[in-house]
């Protein structure tokens, strides 16, 4: 791990629960790494599981709200111009926007488990003026199991929490496959619904 990242984690750990939430809100370090570090802090007895879970869910949801508001108030022109400074890749936004327009608001939950679009999906939701209460509900519902998974993995890894990206792969693959399958089912349901309405 780089010295810069180590310094950030040392600072976040000194803040306890607030540090976990802030680590997720600033989006500088991937959520998987922040949460696995939170699991490590649980392993050390410095924070409780419930406290870390609440901090993770709140921090993760607020982080997505920031991205939602960027889409809501700035729109696509703002993203195209300044997205790179916010670590938001244009290709990710393109993919997320395509998913959102094609499959609707249900993607806010399901896309959270798919690489590439999981963070960027908040942007088209904001651009489309998706009701914020609905956005928060779907986002929180997806963030809870994601947070639980990586806290548990961090606890299991202990001092080896830095290896989370390698260790998590066997767990993430079935989750991604289930999410993709659910998306296909959702798409078929929506298609059938439209076909019935046309009749």
From the structure above, extract its key features:
mainly alpha
Give a description of the structure.
This protein has helices spanning about 5-15, 15-25, 30-45, 50-80, 90-105, 105-110, 115-120, 120-125, 130-155, 165-199. Helix 3 packs antiparallel against helix 4, helix 3 crosses helix 9 (about 130-155) and helix 4 (about 50-80) packs across helix 9. The model has no long low-confidence stretch (mean pLDDT about 80). It is built from ten helices and no strands. The radius of gyration is 18 Å and the shape is globular. It has about 200 residues and is mostly helical. The chain starts with a helix and ends with a helix. About 35% of the residues are buried.
Compile the SSE list and pairings.
Blueprint: H1 3-14, H2 17-25, H3 31-44, H4 49-82, H5 90-103, H6 107-110, H7 117-120, H8 122-127, H9 132-157, H10 164-198
- SS class: mainly alpha
Number of helices: 10
Which whole number gives the mean pLDDT?
78
Q: Distance N terminus to C terminus?
A: 59 Å
Low-confidence stretches: none
Rg (C-alpha, Å): 18 Å
Estimate percent helicity.
over 70%
Described by strand count, sense and barrel closure, the largest sheet is: none
Care to give the gist of this entry?
This protein is 79% helix and 0% strand. The protein has 199 residues and is mainly α. Helix 1 packs across helix 2, helix 2 runs parallel beside helix 4 and helix 3 crosses helix 9.
């Amino acid at each position: 791990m780089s010295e810069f990242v180590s310094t950030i984690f040392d600072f976040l750990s000194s803040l306890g629960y607030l540090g976990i939430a802030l680590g997720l809100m600033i989006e500088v370090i991937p959520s998987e790494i922040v949460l696995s570090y939170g699991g490590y802090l649980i392993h050390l007895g410095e924070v409780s599981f419930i406290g870390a879970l609440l901090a993770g869910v709140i921090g993760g949801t607020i982080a997505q709200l920031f991205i939602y508001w960027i889409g809501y108030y700035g729109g696509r022109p703002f993203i195209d111009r300044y997205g790179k400074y916010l670590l938001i890749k244009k290709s990710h936004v393109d993919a997320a926007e395509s998913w959102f327009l094609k499959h609707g608001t249900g993607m806010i939950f399901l896309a959270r488990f798919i690489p590439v679009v999981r963070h960027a999906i908040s942007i088209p939701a904001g651009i489309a003026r998706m009701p914020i209460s609905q956005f928060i509900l779907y986002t929180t519902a997806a963030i809870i199991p994601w947070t639980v998974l990586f806290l548990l993995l961090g606890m299991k890894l202990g001092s080896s929490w830095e290896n989370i990206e390698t260790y998590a792969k066997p767990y993430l693959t079935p989750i991604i496959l289930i999410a993709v399958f659910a998306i296909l089912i959702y798409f078929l349901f929506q298609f059938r619904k439209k076909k019935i309405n046309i009749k």
